Amino acid sequence: MYSELPDFIEIRQSEETGRVIWTQSPIRAGSAIFVTKPYAAASSSSKLTSYCSYCFEQTGMNGLRRCTKCRVTHYCDFNCQTNDWAIHKHECASLQNWSKAAPSSDYPPPSDAIRCLSRMLWKMRKQGPYARQTREIASMQSHRSSLKPSAYESHTYLAHSLVQYLGLSSPGDMEQYSLSSAADLVDTISRFVTNTFTVTDPTLIPLGAAVSPVVALINHSCDPNAVVVFPRVSTDPKVQEPLMQVIAIRDIYPGEEVLTSYIDATLPTNLRQQALNETYNFECNCHLCTSTGLDPRASLNCPKNCGGSCPLPSDEHALVRCSKCKSVVRSVDAALDALRVGQEGLDKANNLQFEDPGKSIRLTTNLIPILTSAGFPPSAHPLLGLTRLHQQLLTSSFPNPLTQEHLDETIHTATTNVAGLTALFREGHPVLALALAELGKLLAVDEPSPRTTNKSVIYPPSGLPRLKLAYETLLRARKMLLIGFGVTNEGGQVGKEVREMIVALEKEIGVFRQGVKNVLEDTPKLKA
Ligand SMILES: [Zn+2]
Ligand SMILES: [Zn+2]
Ligand SMILES: [Zn+2]
Ligand SMILES: [Zn+2]
């Protein structure tokens, strides 16, 4: 089993955490520990028309070929469609039945979870119960015996949709999928839910759901030494992708366990624990979760601005002091109010970001100053989330023609975002690497109306200093991308893009300098 794993990776059994994977050899930061294609994957409903259902390539508005039978899946070309057919032929029939039974013509296809789970079941049926991969799927961990009522409800909902989608009308129909009872079905769903991954594009945008029993062997830490990414650098992406790569983001030593993070590690401890508990049914004991030290995710700036920070007060711990100068935070209620308003606003703005981006950006625009003036540093929740969303919204609403004001506000926001993420992630984490690349790219955008007086106090600078800053930022970004998306992948698609930008900027800065030199030489010298 698990033939994708290299020889130096060992699977051991641990009493507390079940199976764990260890390395017997040192692994350098930026190296791919292993690479594998998901056992099954399905794109999310919103991506069905713009991404290939087989290889997950984005093909823009015109290039996609639609399955004429179900009219749901889209492909890059005939090859991707043919490659997908072995599984899609079952899916195609199910999708057609689903739409026939739909209450209206615009009724959406089932969620990516249902479609991915079904693809998994069809593949298992095809390969048979003794195939290596079927046995790997069957040995993935399930938590059915200790399911929480909330999880039980969502699993029951999934079970209902699945029964309908697969067209199972009697218990006998379930046998073909090696399911002998309703309990078996819930068990399979539970195993799927706790072991599912998000397929992402090379910029970490979520594209759908995937299952991979070998990647599922890796345990969780909120401060992981490895990440799962999809850098999309195959020589023939239309055949090989989507490939999951497990990349070391720091040096890992012999005898160390390989760990990735299952959740958004920018969240403070209580929210991380909640997310892990709800979806994965365990309590994390990593050093971040057990530390009693100051967490930049839940802290305030010193009330006297000495440069130190204070833990975020709570109803139980209302008296908090600066870690450096020991000043007491007086405005506890204001901070707690800002936290509550900010959290509610972030949830709302996130939900509205595609439906009503105008309303979403009004929320982020109003909330960011409230949290900042309540003393939240850029790394604190929910300010970091608001800043990241604000940046996305600003970038996707660039006016035409672009104004200096809009561009500079976007750069400001991107800078705050990088500052926040720098406090949370180690060098080379893909999230931080991408944020830096984004900032560098923004700084390199042609200025619509550069300032002529270049006071050094103004940020972002204009003209040559701005180009230089763009150049330095992209250099740093590239160094981190090479780690986060793998050295041999050249930092993935974004890493390659950034390298090209660096070369172009080198030229531009050279020309700029030459231009300035020419102007100086052309200026008639003043007579002494
Ligand atoms: Zn394709
Ligand atoms: Zn079809
Ligand atoms: Zn943790
Ligand atoms: Zn202080």
From TrEMBL:
Keywords: Metal-binding, Zinc, Zinc-finger. The keyword Zinc applies. Residues 7-263 form the SET domain. InterPro entries: H3K4_H4K5_MeTrfase (IPR050869), SET_dom (IPR001214), SET_dom_sf (IPR046341), Znf_MYND (IPR002893). Residues 52-92 form the MYND-type domain. SMART domains: SET (SM00317). The keyword Zinc applies. It comes from the Eukaryota. It holds the Pfam family SET. This is SET domain-containing protein. It comes from Lentinula lateritia. The lineage of its organism: Eukaryota, Fungi, Dikarya, Basidiomycota, Agaricomycotina.
